[in-house]
Amino acid sequence: MDPQQKLLLQCSYRALEDAGIPMEKASGTKTGVYIGLMNKDFELNRVNLPPNEISHWTGSGLAVSIASNRISYTFNLTGPSFTIDCACSSSLVALHLACQGIRQGDCDMALCGGVNCIIEPGIFISLSKAKMISPDGTSKAFSNRADGYGRGEGCGIVLLKPLKRALQDSDHIWGVISKTAVNQDGHSVSPITKPSMIQQEELLRRVYSTEHDLTRVQYIEAHGTGTPVGDPIEASSISNVIAKARPPGSEPLIIGSVKSNIGHTESAAGVAGLIKVLLMMKHETIVPSVFYSEESASIDAGALNIRIPTKVEKWQSSDPAGRVAGINNFGFGGTNAHAVIKQYKNPVVAIDGDREFQYFVLSAASEKSLTMMIEEIIDEVNKDSAESFESLSYTSACRRSHSKHKYRKAFLTSSLTNLKEQLQSALSKNIKPSKLDISLVFVFCGNGLTYRGMCRQLLKQEPIFRQKVEEIETLLQSYRNVTILDKLENDSDEDGDSSRPDIVQPLLFAVQVGIFSLFQHWGIRPDAVLGHSIGEVAAAHCSGLLSLEDAVKVIHYRSALQSKVTGGKMLVVSNMAVSQVLKLLSPYPEKICLAAFNSPQSCTLSGDADAIDKLQETLSNVEGSDALFLRTLDVSSAFHSHRMNPILSQVENSIGRLQQRDTNTELYSTVSGAAVSDGDFCSGKYWAQNIREPVLFESAVRAAAEGKRNVVFVEIGPRRALQRNIIETLGESPDSSNGVCAQYCESYFCTKTVPVVEMNNEGDTNCQLSVIPLKPEAHKLFHKDAVYIVTGGLTGLGFETVRFIAKRGGGNIIILSRRSPTPGMEQEIEAVQKECGAVIDALQCDVSVTEQVQKAIDTIKHTFPIKGVFHSAVVLHDGILEKLDRSLYEKVMKPKVSGALSLHHATKHCNLDYFVCYSSVASFTGNASQSNYAAANSFLDRFCHYRRHLGLAAQSINWGALNVGLLLNKDHLQKFLETRGLMLLQPNEIEQSLQDCLLLNKPQQLICKFNFKNLRRNTSQNASLGLRLASLVKEKVGDSTEPDTATEHPHQSPSEYVRTVLSETLDVKPEELTEGTQLSTLGIDSMLAMTLQNQFSKGRGVTVPLVKFLDPNSTVGTLFKALNQHL
Q1: Which residues are CB-neighbours of 981 under 8 A, at least 6 positions away?
Q2: pLDDT tens-digit map of 912-924
Q3: Which of 562, 648, 864, 976 has its CA 20 to 30 A from that of 935?
Q4: Enclosing H/E stretch for 528
Q5: How far, in Å, CA of 270 to CA of 292, rounded?
């Protein structure tokens, strides 16, 4: 595909996005596409393709017509769509035609602009031979150094819309096109490529036909390509028609050319000039044209009454209508275009800033795109000129495309600062794709959930909600004197009516219908609805079956008549099979009824108070009663029981027949437990059944979910009540997102998309989120039906990781190692397999060799999906810089660096939960004798940040000293490390730390156990280390210092002291250590060198450089001198 087509698609998307028009809103509209395109470099480059490289998409990929048509196709735009080629005036001619198309009704909006890409040299050669191209590649507009134009590349797209409609839609407007015009040179000049002053002047006279036009224009964006012929002609035509024709005393007309700044973008030149003018208007600034000065001008600007700025200046304007500019655009074949642009100042729109919380939403087609978007928003928020919090929230929700995006993130936040914190936190977490083909079911809750002051925020902040509540209140007042708004806005319960059905049921109905109306206003419509008990009234209306008037009639008579019945109790029984509960009811005939089947494990009982009390006592003493949940409901009477019998005929007769209307969504009955049947909800008889018969909620939920994919239940009501029942009914388990409600219980809507969406309208900060406690589900780190790869997994930390994964549920573990496991290691692997039930295989593979890694991954992924990589491979070769050559750096770095890169490329298309690189504290603290090892680990640290930036799983763990592998039971090394401030982590601490790291999921984490007193001494002697750790040490042990005086051998001379320390550390007789004894002959390696360095530091307060110990020319006498120098 021609790259110009890709640029046009990208810029079209950005133009729509800048306009705040979501793709879903633009789709299907009568939007035209007018594109200027003249160069076909890509086609010329492909003209001699061999037949076997020509495919079925070659034609569309090269066709000029497809450049515009592909935009229409991609965004589903149905207006005119064509590509225009009139050379360098193409994009402004496209603008002219787009304006005409809108005026005559061909389209309602238009995308127009131009594009230019330079791909092959043919056009360059042709233009060079025509003397049109500047040898140095720059356009020196209006300069006597002008020698042709410099070619430029780029793409520009603008979106056009009638001003009246743009204002109606509250669009952001950059400017207003006042006039456009196009003409042709004809044969007025020769050759064809020469510009015609006659036709340029004729075009400008058509545009600036009145004195008003001449006086208002303040700036002309000239075509100004930098040719010695064209520039003077254009300047003269502008002067003759505009500058000199203005009233005496007028300021010189300012002109300029963007081509001196960005080059001549040919078919995109007109739109480039337009965008420059719009930006100058926005910033009220005129920018200079480079390469121009009065001394080097090719025109007499004073005589022409024009001025070309040479520096940035304020665009002054005394015209109340604002700034006005004209734009010239000429084609080398003689087609000329001009447009007049007026500034538009967008009014500052007051946005409701009273909300304590706002939702900020983001979505993208990929996880990487969403991550980049989050990073971009963070950068925007950091700017001093950042938009207001309310504006950002509005734009994110209403002016961005979301419907086709799988990756979504919502933030409930109260300020820009809080938003920034949440955005930064989100960067460290994996974002899972959302399901776009969901089926939405609204569940309207029943009695017992209202409370004083509920929904005050909604009443205050959402006019749609308030208007609906007011409408319901007005309708209800035709039956009785009731003030719903007062009840909702008043915190006190002076009348003691919080449990009266004739009060709470109308309140609940009003709240539910108000919330539904608000959702409708936001464009959220359910696929199905159902109600629990009283919730059926709102469900019937919101499905479209009942009018609001009829629903209010039902709620009035239902609640008023139920208020006449008092006495009895209702008891919720949960965590016990309903079938088992029913067996316990036989001793209570005609005294206790089953009021509601809520789920297989939950029901509501209703009946006489004494019978309910006895049954509750019985339930409290049954086996397993500790797990039961028993709760007496705060209701005035025993609904859905025999106690409703006295009012059934009154309910039936009072409500009578109701008008049945067509439903606009599926409706399910909790009286029948099935989809609505003819006559349901539309008679007094049905509503009598509604208050007497058991609520078949479980059956209705199953029916609503049957045959639907990705069902999402949204509970509509003041409080969450039915989530647990829905989960139990559909056999799903809650996830850890329940905590969101606790954090934001002041917010009305707290949602989670899988498996259940919760609606929570709680205004009481002390509210309990669920009356039934749910046992939290432990986070599962690994899966049985997945593969986890561990490199270097046959030794040390690598095998500890294998054991760790197996113990925590990982079903399949592959160890990648250069060597086969030893017999002893095979036994250990077998023991872990037996203990944990995992399958563990070792595969020979050198991870530093890309081909071997790719082959291994290809083999592995045909078994189970690969879900994790733990890169533990390591090779050590210590030594000071002078002792390490390139080969020793490669030896140490290859397993880590090449290994990480190979694993990255081989698994980047796998949906990994983990990509864990085992780094070292050495990359954090540094180590003079391990520069190669520190460098390798530093790479792993940065590489994990890089993968996170790509939206991939990654975390680097900088491990400290571990009692595994090389350090296992090495007392002398352990003591040495402790003197340096490093304590060893034991295997159980390693496991816990690793688990914490995986759960915390940060890009880089340091796991190290410190002896802070020793570490303080070490940081005081090591400036580099001090920079990294001093603040940590100070936090732990304060500012106190310990004297660095000798505690051992205090009276020895330096030479005696050196011999004693060497003798004790290296097991060498003191008399064998002469002044000339070379240290290299004593077997001092990097670890021993650090031990000795620490001994001298503790004993004499002298830090001898490690180089002194490891230098092949150093002797015992070298150490004498080092100590003597500090006496």
Answers
A1: 1010, 1011, 1012, 1013, 1014, 1015, 1016, 1017, 1018, 1019
A2: 999 999 999 888 7
A3: 976
A4: strand 528-531
A5: 21
Q: Do 139 and 150 meet the contact criterion of CB atoms below 8 Å apart? A: yes
CB 327 within 8 A of CB 238: no
Report whether 306 contacts 239 (CB < 8 A): yes
Q: What is the pLDDT of residues 610-647, one digit of tens each?
A: 999 999 999 998 887 888 889 898 888 999 999 999 99
**CB contact at 8 A, 652 and 687:** yes
236 exposed, middle or buried (CB, 10 Å; 0-12, 13-18, 19+)?
buried
User: How many other β-carbons are positioned within 10 Å of the β-carbon of residue 648?
Assistant: 17
Instruction: Round to whole Å and give the CA distance between 39 and 332.
Output: 13
Backbone φ and ψ for 566, nearest 5 degrees, come out as -130, 165
Contacts of 951 (CB under 8 A, 6+ apart): 366, 367, 368, 369, 370, 371, 431
DSSP-derived pairing of the beta strands 358-364 and 407-413: antiparallel
Tokens representing residue 7 in the block: 């640029």
Do residues 80 and 325 lie in contact, with contact meaning Cβ atoms separated by under 8 Å?
Answer: no
Tell which residue, 369, 360, 359, 358, has the closest CA to residue 407: 369
Q: Which residue has the tokens 């109340």?
A: 320
pTM above 0.85, yes or no: no
The pLDDT assigned to 660 comes to: 95
CA 333 – CA 488 distance, rounded (Å): 74
Q: Which helix (H) or strand (E) holds 324?
A: strand 324-330
**For residue 968, with 0-12 CB atoms within 10 Å meaning exposed, 13-18 middle and 19 or more buried, which class applies?**
middle
Cis peptide before 191 (omega within 30 of 0): yes
Interstrand relation of 528-531 and 666-669 (parallel, antiparallel or unpaired): parallel
Q: Which two tokens stand for residue 386?
A: 């950042």
